[in-house]
Specification:
alpha+beta; Metal Binding Protein, Guanine Nucleotide Exchange Factor, Chain A; 2 domains; six-stranded antiparallel sheet; 9 helices; 19 strands; 20% helix; globular
């Protein structure tokens, strides 16, 4: 039994999944909708009801990163070939970045050559809504998340078999959950949130956060530089300006951003400029890349608290700035210590 399937007993309406399958599906409870859920390994449930997510525009603006807000709530579109999920080929699940509803599985993802992540089928037709879109002087079919009405992209009839469809989506509207990672059952209207830290060798930083309760997924990569799609060798040259960083997806109902900051400070030396232990270079700098004004405020407050506490005898040199493009590192770097079957060695 998968982690997701084992939790479905607490979902309202779950007992009616068999009735749904037989074609006698009753109306969902008030304020809810029928969907099918799926975990990161592709295990799917029958039809169950979950609460709709309704927020004011101000609430969405406060809850989402700027780019996700622009796409999901303002029907924006990413530039072609720029979305972070375009070249994501790892097995897993793509959920709505606004409410966590499972939307597309990696098995249905294909390279359409259009410059946007493309899929030939969703997890379930129940999980998406289709709307006629007559903007740009043409008639298209817009795809929305059925739970929070967030704009995802469009669907076209030029896809591969077996459906012949191409769901053309925006990366910022989705959150990727790697295979083997638990998928939080989306009972609340609180979306998962993103955090990005640089604290030396990203192998060790990732291993620390992956073991933290409330952290749903992690990825190592490069950020803060001026070169797109930088490679490990280019970053190590010190000429790209990138930092080795860890991108974190976390459930704010299980762990707060303030608690993640505490872990960040406790597990590296923020007083050594462009260095952590034997690793020397600006790619190993101490940095917090924030995704919202709230994160920035919390990060600045935590840094000031650390300075006043005098836990560190030397001045703290940690950089705090707005998160920019994050380029996922080569696959052999992901979960490095787990793949090698050894204990982390580059962080205390």
């Amino acid at each position: 039994m998968s982690a997701l399937t084992g939790l479905l007993g607490i979902l309202p309406g779950c007992g009616q999944a068999d009735k749904a399958a037989s074609g006698t599906l009753p109306p969902p409870p008030k304020g809810s909708l029928w969907v099918q859920l799926e975990d990161s390994e592709g295990h799917r449930t029958g039809r169950v009801s979950i609460p709709k997510v309704l927020k004011t525009d101000d609430e969405w603006r406060a809850a989402l990163p700027l780019e996700s807000y622009r796409i999901l709530r303002r029907k924006g579109t990413e530039a072609a070939f720029c979305g972070i999920l375009l070249k994501q080929h790892e097995p897993g699940l793509y959920v709505c970045a606004g409410c966590g509803l499972p939307l597309f599985g990696s098995a249905a993802k294909f390279d359409s050559g259009t410059g946007w992540p493309s899929y030939y089928a969703p997890v379930s037709q129940l999980n998406i809504a289709e709307k006629t879109d007559i903007t740009l002087g043409m008639r298209r079919v817009e795809i929305q998340c059925a739970r929070c009405d967030g704009h995802l992209g469009h669907v076209f009839d030029d896809g591969p078999a077996p459906t012949g469809l191409r769901y053309c989506l925006n990366s910022a509207a989705l959150t990727f959950i790697p295979q083997g990672q638990s998928v939080p059952v989306p009972l609340s209207d609180t979306p998962l949130q993103q955090a990005t830290f640089s604290a030396g060798c990203f192998w060790g930083v990732e291993s620390i956060f992956r073991e933290t309760t409330g952290v749903v997924a992690t990825a190592v990569g490069y950020t803060g530089g001026h070169l797109e799609n930088a490679t490990y060798q280019q970053v190590c040259s010190g000429e790209t300006g990138h930092a080795e960083a860890v991108d974190i997806l976390f459930d704010p109902q299980r762990i707060s951003y303030a608690e993640l900051l505490k872990i960040f400070w406790e597990n590296h030396d923020p007083t050594t400029l462009n260095r952590q232990g034997p690793d020397v270079g600006d790619q190993y700098r101490s940095a917090i890349f924030v995704h919202s004004s709230e994160q920035q405020q919390l990060a600045l407050m935590s840094k000031e608290t650390m300075i006043k506490s005098k836990v560190f005898k030397r001045p703290i040199v940690t950089f705090i700035g707005t998160a920019g493009p994050f380029f996922r590192a080569e696959e052999y770097h992901q979960q490095y210590f787990k793949k090698k079957g050894v204990a982390p060695t580059c962080h205390r």
